[in-house]
């Protein structure tokens, strides 16, 4: 009994102690609240009311591109767009909810969604099932990154099939929402935004935080596919491989940026000055935006290209390719290239290339633009480079203008035989460099190469040429014309060609080099080479941009000149004026003398064009078959050149099959088209 009474007396005491402790805690809390209210009340209020001003840059339309006569080649077309600007404080649930609301108002393509996107989205939508992918022990033992990786790996195809079509559309929008940085506007949709979609989103902006409707732009091409491989393309969003570079230069992740050729080469000019906008934020949410400074679209490019001439050259190539394939059944003939260049300034007037490619949609072969192939692909051109060989002989001192060399079949002790195409042994004749060029003598070039390599030909002797010396000297002097080296054109992706590597016992390859059948050259290099001969010895740097202009206004489509691209002489060849004139006369005889290999360029309606030229054929291999490449270099008028032309037609016909003259057929028509156009404009 006493124990029970004693026990009861302790219970009220404990309760009192508990109540006292609670009283102390509440008193401390009230004291703290009072302290904050009285002492720091104003600071707390200011913190709640505080807004932040954050300045961001928004993109502007790119500069336009015109041809030399100021015809628009690349323009901008306005289009409706829906954007999203992420708040400063990211909230996954709110962002997902906004994406779901927007998905009900617009249609969004899902073709850019990756498997990784689907996995992450499934985990987001199914947190309980996703957590069950790992055991409690795995969650406890693994690091966060390792656990997340293992979790993603255990998401199955069956799991992903749970994502409905509507889910994927939400994912596509959510993916765009989360691509950029906070307060950095991202394009959600800017292609095929209908008026109805634009209106629906505009009406519901109050319930779509961060979403906005605006006007964007896209590139359009008035000349359609003409010169498309040269004009280049624009990325919608920064490329992953150059993300750091562009962001360091003030780009946003959703900005358009030049992807290839002209758009890439002149990105700094075309991108423009971004508009600056101040976002007023409170608690991480955007309250309003204010314009800080207006942007200006990019500067415009004026090209050296004559688009009317370009179209005519494209048409000629297409017609001649189709005609030749239909007439001769040439199996491997699938492309042709033409470069037209002002030999005095280096301006590219036309850069044309066509190639047969298989169209998966149309299920047939079609001719597509391959203008870039003029400087991104290289071929053995054959005799077209013999002008460089002759001048190399002069510049090394082994020959001189007017020196006679016997064209005869060359026979060596090891059984090797080499000869000119027109001389199998019955018609040995001495000739100077002019006749050698006119008739396209191989032997004249062979003997020149042997002399450069320190060897005087003796019938029945071993070929005692110093191969290293011959190649070093010939390649050095060929490079003075631009053959085998970069031309310096203002476009990315140029190749210098392939330099052959002769084996120890292949000294004869130096002879092949002398007739253009060893190293490979681009068609643009051939244009630079023939321009050097045409203008009297200056290697001009080719360029495709003529001017950079400030953006125009409503009254004038073209603004003032910001920069004019000046003609540039890269080097002068070491030949004398007399030596160059000798080769020029040889090129004239190719076209205008009986027995010349290019007489088709100087007959009938082409006679008055006064063309000087050198044709070329080269035996090579394509897909394991022996084929002939055809080439042509030319300029006109002979006395005062204003146009230089180079042509390469790879695999023009199979060895042993019927020959064709597609190089000359294209060449004479292109030259006539140029001068006809000049006459029309002069009227």
Automatic annotation (TrEMBL):
<dbReference type="InterPro" id="IPR001460">
    <property type="entry name" value="PCN-bd_Tpept"/>
</dbReference>
<dbReference type="Pfam" id="PF00905">
    <property type="entry name" value="Transpeptidase"/>
</dbReference>
<comment type="pathway">
    <text>Cell wall biogenesis; peptidoglycan biosynthesis.</text>
</comment>
<feature type="domain" description="Penicillin-binding protein dimerisation">
    <location>
        <begin position="58"/>
        <end position="289"/>
    </location>
</feature>
<dbReference type="InterPro" id="IPR012338">
    <property type="entry name" value="Beta-lactam/transpept-like"/>
</dbReference>
<dbReference type="GO" id="GO:0008658">
    <property type="term" value="F:penicillin binding"/>
</dbReference>
<dbReference type="GO" id="GO:0009252">
    <property type="term" value="P:peptidoglycan biosynthetic process"/>
</dbReference>
<keyword id="KW-0812">Transmembrane</keyword>
<dbReference type="Pfam" id="PF03717">
    <property type="entry name" value="PBP_dimer"/>
</dbReference>
<dbReference type="GO" id="GO:0005886">
    <property type="term" value="C:plasma membrane"/>
</dbReference>
<keyword id="KW-0133">Cell shape</keyword>
<dbReference type="GO" id="GO:0009002">
    <property type="term" value="F:serine-type D-Ala-D-Ala carboxypeptidase activity"/>
</dbReference>
<protein>
    <recommendedName>
        <fullName>serine-type D-Ala-D-Ala carboxypeptidase</fullName>
        <ecNumber>3.4.16.4</ecNumber>
    </recommendedName>
</protein>
<dbReference type="InterPro" id="IPR005311">
    <property type="entry name" value="PBP_dimer"/>
</dbReference>
<feature type="domain" description="Penicillin-binding protein transpeptidase">
    <location>
        <begin position="337"/>
        <end position="672"/>
    </location>
</feature>
<keyword id="KW-0472">Membrane</keyword>
<dbReference type="InterPro" id="IPR036138">
    <property type="entry name" value="PBP_dimer_sf"/>
</dbReference>
<dbReference type="InterPro" id="IPR050515">
    <property type="entry name" value="Beta-lactam/transpept"/>
</dbReference>
<comment type="similarity">
    <text>Belongs to the transpeptidase family.</text>
</comment>
<keyword id="KW-1133">Transmembrane helix</keyword>
<keyword id="KW-0961">Cell wall biogenesis/degradation</keyword>
<dbReference type="GO" id="GO:0071555">
    <property type="term" value="P:cell wall organization"/>
</dbReference>
<dbReference type="GO" id="GO:0071972">
    <property type="term" value="F:peptidoglycan L,D-transpeptidase activity"/>
</dbReference>
<dbReference type="GO" id="GO:0008360">
    <property type="term" value="P:regulation of cell shape"/>
</dbReference>
<keyword id="KW-1003">Cell membrane</keyword>
<keyword id="KW-0573">Peptidoglycan synthesis</keyword>
